[in-house]
Design a protein that fits this description.
Bound molecules: phosphoenolpyruvate, magnesium ion
CATH topology of the largest domain: Dna Ligase, domain 1
Strand content: 15-25%
Helix content: 40-55%
Radius of gyration: 33 Å
Number of strands: 32
CATH class of the largest domain: Alpha Beta
CATH architecture of the largest domain: 2-Layer Sandwich
Strand order of the largest sheet: 13-23-22-15-16-17-18-14
Length: 889
């Protein structure tokens, strides 16, 4: 079949299906799928994303054939609906909506009621017998079309409407009569003409092509671009355009419009969840202008609401709706987020998609669905984005802390945050850039606020429901949010809000809890999160499927315990230098560095050694039975010395070492690019007594633990090794010290000696290093900087421009450069195994907590990754996903 640009759908029949998201966009593909399932979908057709891509690649030219295809499909639509586009007696009206491959809520344009003009509005009146309704649709259409397609500011319409309301003495739109709407519409059209110098378009076909082009154009608006960047959505995907016959939720009190989730997207509870408005049109619910009602009686009662739920006010349609959404959840085997309209008692489904959910809900839903047998445990694991587990690990309010609640709204997005009050997105961006924590407080948010929402720690809105823009976007971004806090009166222009008789000003600190909806005065104490059973279940399943072990990078007992609690199977990197910065230790370390000769160094090391021995003992005890990889001293010595003249004077005074000597030695040791210089094992080679002392401490600590009935598994790791001679020397030194300690203590124990692979030469010579190294741990922080020749410390300055220009897809220090650095790793793995088939292989750079890098480690056959304690759960899940994905290929 030759390529076509338009795909049609109507209940019971569709050209497309749910698998065609890339071509039809998410909305279009799911409308087709719902139509095939014979669900009540208003008929329509979808213009493909390829047409949009063509439009951008060809100077805003429509592809050849598109106009004809749209004409043909419009004619079919007229036949299906038995209405005519532009037909004065029986007008077909359509909605024109964007719909990209990935959901981009509210970022692109939509036009409703298209096809209305001065003549068809009369037809709509005749058909419905309701001129007020017809005129209300027409004025909505003029406003929306003028704003979205013709670029007229919506405030101009609001000003006209407000003037009329003042003149008529009414406050709400529903009190405006048909006659008055006629006058308002006349004023609208006059204003459009004076702004644009031409009449509001009356020809429905002109209207349609204007709207199609506007939707294409909205793919490149600022907020869509920003949203794409934030969510890694490629610019060249384009958007589809969905053209669908209109159904009306605003045709009286047997009509309604709403949104629903088949399970609660905030908590994961399995009850149907959502909101609806009687006698309202499409965007009214999400726009947050009127506060919507609950769908079910139970939800209404739980909320202590009075206005009737849909279940109570439209019981028959509700029953049909419930069956429909159950069908959808079972069909898609995932929670659905649906939009629907009831037109005079008849249900229509306008959209379905897999629901966005909080990490807490994602866990609960995945576990529940697996237990219900709807999905397998493997699928449950694959459904959780490891990155979002981070949200669960975030602090929450200490329930015991005193708090003064100043307002309450809806718990729209969980988590707690404190910060300064700001009232505009611009302020949020500005203050956040200056390092301030801010809470964005608004009447309601709109897509223009997206940068401010991103910059803020949390968001509060006075209006809108759980599916308002603020709620949906905050949840997606992982920002805590309280919406619909109606008791707050916000005076943004004065920089203050009032609530419960008090006024709060710009810059004052508040705290909000997005899980309860409470807003509190001041900063409230936070506590570490309590993990749900669902979290433990997912972690247990992850452990069943993963092959990689997850270790932690930890040097303090507290970190080691946290890591163990998160399920780490040992320590993959203990950076011993981090143990030296305590006030009481640094002096001895400086004495060691400043010593004139070996004897002086040994004297100072003798002071440090017992402290190290104690540290190692604790780590071995905590990690009883598990490996503990201890890396000997790595950083350049000048890092331990004072830098400024003030610091030098202070150290000279407290240490008793002369300022002149201190200054001279600091100069001698400082290097311009210390990340590459006299550091790592080069210290151990040039000053063997340093490593000797560390080894003494660690072997003695291990014997101490052994004697105490413990089971220590030390792995001694040498940093920044480049040559087999270094490795052989360091390995011999390690074995010599072990022998001496074991002989003195009358005990032996198993241990391993290995190296980090942090330099390209180490990777190239891995076969030789493996002659003496029993394990390799890829130090991908250093390996990345030495492979690219960029510094970990200052490359931030040009990395961002590099990422913006598309030279780097991601920061290579965050996500492993699998092509380049990855090639070195693969080579080292192969060479290491060739020499020593049972060589133990791991990775301990920051990449050990990055899901994409973890998948790579799985693929190349490493035994473990090691990451910071809080990332251990993320890594466990990512490792399971890598294993499941590899098995299903
Ligand atoms: C590395 O280089 O990847 C590493 C883990 O060591 P450090 O970050 O301490 O240099
Ligand atoms: Mg390193």
């Amino acid at each position: 079949m030759s390529k076509h640009w338009v795909y049609a759908f109507k209940a019971g029949q569709a050209d497309g299906d749910a698998s065609m998201k890339a071509l039809l966009g998410g909305k279009g593909a799911n409308l087709a799928e719902m139509s095939s399932l014979n669900l009540p979908v208003p008929a329509g057709f979808t213009i493909t994303t390829e047409a949009c891509v063509h439009y951008y690649q060809n100077n805003s030219e429509l592809p050849a054939g598109l106009v004809d295809e749209v004409e043909t499909n419009l004619a079919h639509l007229e036949k299906t609906t038995a209405k005519g586009f532009g037909d004065v007696a029986n007008p077909l009206l359509v909605s024109v909506r964007s719909g990209a491959r990935a959901s981009m809520p509210g970022m692109m344009d939509t036009v409703l009621n298209l096809g209305l003009n001065d003549a068809t509005v009369e037809g709509l009146t005749a058909l419905t017998g309701d001129s007020r309704f017809a005129l209300d649709c027409y004025r909505r259409f003029i406003t929306m079309y003028s704003n979205v397609v013709l670029g007229v500011n919506h405030h101009s319409f609001e000003d006209i409407l407000d003037d009329h309301k003042d003149r008529l003495g009414v406050t709400i739109d529903t009190d405006i009569t048909a006659k008055d709407w006629e006058r308002i519409i006349a004023d609208y059209k006059a204003m459009v003409k004076s702004e644009l110098g031409r009449d509001f378009p009356q020809d429905p076909k002109d209207q349609l092509w204007g709207a199609i082009r506007a939707v294409f154009g909205s793919w490149m608006n600022d907020r869509a671009k920003f949203y794409r960047k934030m969510h890694d959505i490629p610019e060249d995907w384009g958007t589809a355009v969905n053209i669908q016959s209109m159904v009306f939720g605003n045709m009286g009190n047997t009509s309604a419009t709403g949104v629903a989730f088949t399970r609660n997207p905030s908590t994961g509870d399995s009850d149907l969840y959502g909101e609806f408005l009687l006698n309202a049109q499409g965007e009214d619910v999400v726009a947050g202008i009127r506060t919507p009602q609950a769908l079910t009686k139970k939800a209404r009662e739980d909320m202590g609401e009075r206005s009737l739920s849909m279940e109570e006010s439209l019981p028959e349609v509700f029953a049909q709706f419930k069956t429909t959404v159950d069908t959808l959840e079972n069909h898609y085997r995932d929670v659905q987020d649906v939009e629907f309209t009831v037109e005079q008692g008849k249900l229509y489904m306008l959209q379905t998609r897999n629901a966005k959910r909080t990490s807490k809900a994602a866990l609960k839903i995945a576990v529940d669905m697996a237990k219900e047998g709807l999905i397998t445990p493997q699928e449950a694991l694959m459904r959780i984005d490891p990155g979002t587990l981070d949200q669960l690990l975030h602090p929450m309010l200490d329930p015991k802390a005193d708090k003064t609640v100043i307002a309450k709204g809806l718990p729209a997005s969980p988590g707690a945050a404190s910060g300064k009050i700001v009232f505009t997105a611009e302020d949020a961006v500005r203050y956040a850039a200056a390092g301030e924590d801010v809470i964005l407080v608004r009447d309601e948010t709109s897509p223009e606020d997206i940068k401010g929402m991103y910059a803020a720690k949390a968001i509060v809105t006075a209006r809108g429901g759980m599916t308002s823009h603020a709620a949906v976007v905050a949840r997606g971004m992982g920002r805590p949010c309280v919406s619909g806090a109606g008791e707050m009166q916000i005076y943004a222009e004065r920089g203050e809000f009032a609530s419960r008789g008090q006024t709060y000003r710009h810059g004052e600190i508040i705290t909000l809890d997005g899980s309860t909806g409470e807003i509190m005065k001041g900063a409230i104490r936070m506590i570490e999160p309590d993990f749900s059973e669902d979290f433990h279940q997912i972690m247990a399943w992850a452990d069943d499927y993963k092959r990689l072990d997850i270790r932690a990078n930890a040097e303090t007992p507290a970190d080691a315990r946290t890591a163990l609690g998160f399920g780490a199977k040992g320590i993959g990197l203990c950076r011993t230098e981090h143990m030296f910065f305590d006030e009481d230790r640094i002096t001895a370390v400086r004495e060691m560095i400043l010593a004139d000769d070996e004897a002086g160094r040994r004297k100072a090391l003798a002071k440090i050694e017992p402290m190290q021995r104690k540290d190692f003992t604790e780590l071995f005890q905590i990690m009883d039975g598990l490996p503990v990889t201890i890396r000997l001293l790595d950083p350049p010595l000048h890092e331990f010395l004072p830098h400024t003249e003030e610091d030098i004077a202070h150290v000279a005074e407290t240490s008793g070492i002369g300022a002149d000597k201190l200054y001279k030695r600091t100069k001698e040791l400082s290097e311009t690019n210390p990340m590459l210089g006299w550091r790592g094992c080069r210290l151990g080679i040039t000053f063997p007594e340093i490593y000797e002392s560390q080894l003494n401490a660690l072997f003695n600590a291990a014997v101490d633990v052994l004697e105490g009935g413990g089971d220590p598994h030390p792995e001694i790791m040498h940093p920044l090794v480049a040559t087999q001679e270094e490795m052989a020397k360091l390995s011999a030194l390690t074995h010599d010290v072990a022998k001496i300690v074991f002989a003195a203590r009358g005990k032996t124990l198993a241990y391993k000696v290995g190296t980090m692979i942090e330099l390209p030469r180490a990777a190239l010579m891995a076969n030789r290093l493996a002659e003496t190294a029993e394990f390799f741990s890829f130090g991908t922080n250093d390996l990345t900087q030495t492979t690219f020749g960029i510094s970990r410390d200052d490359s931030g300055r040009f990395l961002n421009p590099y990422i913006e220009k598309g030279i780097f897809e991601k920061d290579p220090f965050v996500s492993l450069d699998q092509d380049g650095v990855g090639a070195l790793i693969e080579m080292a793995v192969a060479k290491g195994k060739a020499t020593r088939p049972d060589i133990k292989l791991g990775l301990c750079g920051e990449h050990g907590g990055d899901p994409a890098s973890i998948a790579f480690c799985h693929k190349v056959g490493l035994a473990y990754v090691s990451c910071s304690p809080y990332r251990v759960p993320v890594a466990r899940l990512a490792a399971a996903q890598a294993a499941i994905a590899a098995n299903s290929q």
